[in-house]
Amino acid sequence: QVQLVESGGGLVQPGGSLRLSCTSSGFAPDYHPIGWFRQAPGKEREGVSCINNNDGTSYYADSVEGRFTISRDNNKNTVYLQIDRLNLEDTAVYYCATDWPATTIQGCALEESEYNQWGQGTQVTVSS
Fold first, then answer.
1. CB 110 within 8 A of CB 35
2. Phi and psi of 101, rounded to 5°?
3. Which tens digits make up the pLDDT trace of 21-34?
4. Quick one: DSSP state of residue 102?
5. What is the CA radius of gyration of the chain?
6. In sequence order, which ranges of the chain are alpha helices (DSSP H)?
7. CA atoms of 48 and 70, how far apart (whole Å)
8. pLDDT (tens digit, 9 = 90+) per residue, 41-98?
9. Largest Cα–Cα distance in the chain?
10. Distance between CA atoms of residues 29 and 98, nearest Å
11. CA nearest neighbour of 92 among 122, 118, 60, 115
């Protein structure tokens, strides 16, 4: 059974940092990219970053480039999203996702339609 579990969200002050985790089970991560998405109140879900475990490719949305860093620990089947210099606009539920059983040899995408397996999300709230 494919499962994705996010953790690491919380309440943080503007300018602070968080590291989100996405731990996967039920599939081998090598050919199944992991994408991070977020949905702010009243807004559509948007892709912020993704990584392909096979070729190491990673991408970022323009809105988060330079502040978000995606990484992976294959031994733990976990993908991390480091978020620095948090601002009020980062407040959202953050989700990780993958596409299974389809495989992707190279690259990854930030489009929601490219993913069909989703975690339950973790809340990030930025407030002073």
1. yes
2. -90, 0
3. 999 998 887 788 99
4. S
5. 14
6. none
7. 10
8. 999 999 999 999 888 899 999 999 999 999 999 889 999 999 999 999 999 999 999 9
9. 43
10. 9
11. 122
Tell me: cis bond preceding 29? Omega within 30 of 0 counts. no
Strands 10-12, 122-126: parallel, antiparallel or unpaired by DSSP? parallel
Three-class DSSP category at 75: helix
CA-wise closest residue to 124 among 60, 59, 64:
64
Rounded Cα gap, residues 107 and 33, in angstroms: 8
Distance, CA of 103 to CA of 23 (rounded, Å): 18
Tokens of 35: 């994408």
Residues 100-114 have a mean pLDDT of 89
* Residue with token string 């992976």: 72
Q: Which amino acid is at 32?
A: H
User: What's CA 105's distance to the chain center, in Å?
Assistant: 19
Q: How far apart are CA 99 and CA 102, in angstroms?
A: 6
